[in-house]
Amino acid sequence: MKVDNLEQGYFGIGIQNGKTPENLGVLWRSAQNLGASFIFTIGNRYQKQACDTHKAVGAMPYFHYETFEDFYKHLPKSALLIGVELTDTAELLERFEHPRRAVYLLGAEDHGLSNKAIEKSHKLIKFKSTLSLNVAVAGSIVMYDRSVKGTVIY
Known about the structure:
Elements: E1 2-3, E2 10-16, H1 21-33, E3 38-42, H2 56-59, E4 62-65, H3 68-73, E5 80-84, E6 91-92, E7 101-107, H4 115-120, E8 123-126, H5 135-149, E9 151-152
Parallel strand pairs: 2-3, 2-7, 3-4, 5-7, 5-8, 6-8
Antiparallel strand pairs: 1-9
């Protein structure tokens, strides 16, 4: 059943082991523009985001987790973890119905999501692509898709 996005819905988006500050800054800017409730990072492969020109970190909650286990322990109780990963078992984004309460997790381009993140994701989604996309581009596409389609009750 499709519902209005404002009806007790929220989403957050973040990167596991993000590689470049530019990718994080672009993703955060898109998150602010496309209605994310919070942003996050897992791991320590990043630095201060000089390219976050809209200052998204000051406009919405930002969380950092040292490990995936720490992140998973703090996942909002009613949210589904949606991993974005190019795997055979992932559902195509074009067919995916976004849950009202979701946390989208992307991996760095060079390593993708960890095996633990893939295993613990409630759903996995992917794009029609033979190669991986830039992490900021991939995250922006997911958020845009959510804004266009709306959400469903799970």
